[in-house]
């Protein structure tokens, strides 16, 4: 299988195929969190030393485009269950905390395939979003937004300033959405 860099066209599909082929553990949230420090930038997309998507916040508080887009996508698709700004609700956990314990690839697997935790008198079910382009095409954006919230790099609410969307990000988005 040809694995691609996170954030590149086809990366989500490759990750889904890998997740399906090696299986997925519901104990994934015990994994150590990867570093959030920026190691490299490529066309407005930031990556850590492990080549995992990460956020970038300028000294004046300007967030990178994907963090801003993640805020928008999270509040469009995720906050209904997980609460505003990743803070959690009585119905679902605080994703700003959960994402700090998850490996990037486990995060992708859970969002794509769903998750069910049953026991101790409770039943928590997260539906699979693998067929939802409004989630999967922006999964790296949601991930970096939640990581920025989980490290308190950005406060609650809409980021006041953000970088512009690059042409490469726009092209990747259009290709994923089929436009």
UniProtKB/TrEMBL annotation:
One of its GO terms (molecular function) is heme binding. SUPFAM superfamilies: Cytochrome c. Residues 1-28 form the signal peptide. Keywords: Signal. It comes from the Bacteria. InterPro entries: C-typ_cyt_methanol_metab-rel (IPR022411), Cyt_c-like_dom_sf (IPR036909). This is Cytochrome c553I.
């Amino acid at each position: 299988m040809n694995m691609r860099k996170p954030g590149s066209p086809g990366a989500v599909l490759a990750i889904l195929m890998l997740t399906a082929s090696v299986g997925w553990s519901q104990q994934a949230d015990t994994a150590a969190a990867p570093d959030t420090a920026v190691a490299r930038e490529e066309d407005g997309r930031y990556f850590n030393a492990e080549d995992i998507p990460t956020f970038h916040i300028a000294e004046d508080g300007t967030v990178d485009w994907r963090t801003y887009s993640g805020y928008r996508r999270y509040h469009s698709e995720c906050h209904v269950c997980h609460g505003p700004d990743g803070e959690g609700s009585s119905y679902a956990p605080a994703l700003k905390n959960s994402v700090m314990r998850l490996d990037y690839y486990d995060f992708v697997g859970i969002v794509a395939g769903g998750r069910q935790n049953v026991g101790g008198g409770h039943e928590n079910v997260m539906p699979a979003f693998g067929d939802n382009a409004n989630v999967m095409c922006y999964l790296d954006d949601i991930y970096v937004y939640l990581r920025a919230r989980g490290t308190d790099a950005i406060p609650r609410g809409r980021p006041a300033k953000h970088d512009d969307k690059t042409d490469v990000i726009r092209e990747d988005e259009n290709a994923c959405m089929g436009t």
